[in-house]
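Notes from hallway chat w/ T.B., transcribed later so I don't forget. T.B. wanted the structure written out for a chain they're using in a teaching module, and asked if we could keep both sequence and structure tokens in one place. Agreed to drop them here.
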Amino acid sequence: MNPRLTLAELTEHPLRQRLNNEFHARPPVPLAGAMLVSHLVFKHSATKAPAARDNLAKLCQAHVCTAIESSDAHLMIDTGAFRMRWELHTEFSCYTFFRALTPGEEINADTTAFDAVHPDWLKGIPGKLIVATQVELRSTAEISPESVLAGLTPNGRTMVAGRVADNAAWIFTDFKIDNGFSRFLVLNESMTQRQSGRTVQRLFEIETYRMMALLGLPVAKEVGRWLYDGEAKLAELMDRIGQARAPQDERDILSTLSKLAAEVEHSIARTTFRFGAARAYHGLVMQRIGELRETRISGLPTFFEFMQRRLLPGMNTCEAIARRQEELSARVARNSQLLRTRVDIELERQNQELLGQMNRRAKLQLHLQEAVEGLSVVVLTYYGSQLVQYLAKGTKELHHLNTDVITAISIPIIAGLVAWGTYRMRKKLASESGEH
């Protein structure tokens, strides 16, 4: 029988346990009975994560804490007076406080689930508060949905409501900030504890991701004003291109276009993350609303309809601005290329003129060289005839020849030899330059 291999003998990937724990992190907290749940979200940079963990340690110094779940980005503690859940995300941290309510307990506008927490600890949380929302979980036996509906006035706030979890509960909210909190009322008719926990968690995620998605809207409005000026500037530059008459005009326009292109790319780099995050957060909002499995309450808008009417236009604005930025960048690039082409054509024309001038100079030099060569033939012929004359004078006593006749006869011969030699040399040089 072959020996059994145990997993301990295998080399485990260092991230295996961490990835599996992350997969199971942030499960919904089962909720039983009446419950008040307060949810705070603080936006901060990634560098603030250590400060957030240090601040959590201070909370446990002031209370007797029992850790239920703990990881680098997640913590669940129970102090007896309340339970607190902390979650660390890329650009924000969530603090959710749970406090059980006694049946029939009245809640005023100032009551929160973290009333037992010292205010100094709350002030020490790093980041800036972006979301503060509260869920009051009651049973339909305590508060009937009909009484809530009867209390709605036609001229009051727009109430968003729906039956969720396959009609096992009722949810009412107006998404308004009242006394610092947006508020949800959840009336449990037949949900289990885990269903209640999942429903409350989805409501918090809807509110959190809704606000985080809306962070892109002010950026879109700011960039939209700049884009209007940028598009107008580009149109003006295009008119200037059509009116350009001198190469210097085109170079000036190209310099301005390059500056505009740099501004566009800077704007894109500055806003890409924010617009991408807004798109992702909006997708999460709509996903969480779908998971509620809501059905309509007659006369009131559902969560889906409310988000389509109020959140979707802002997200469409972000998408439109992002698209306009990309289109402006592409247009600037195209027009820059067009202008560069015109500048290159002008440079080629100037180079052709320069080459033409060089050719003309070369021809002049060639004619001058030919004239010099002709003069050289005359000079060489003259000196050659003089040498013949000297030779003839030296042999005059021997042969009794007429030196003038000999000199005259030698002139055409010498001239012919010099011209033939010059021609051969020019032909040889021309053939060598042709080979190279």
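Follow-up for T.B.: The mean pLDDT is 86. Might be a good example for the class.
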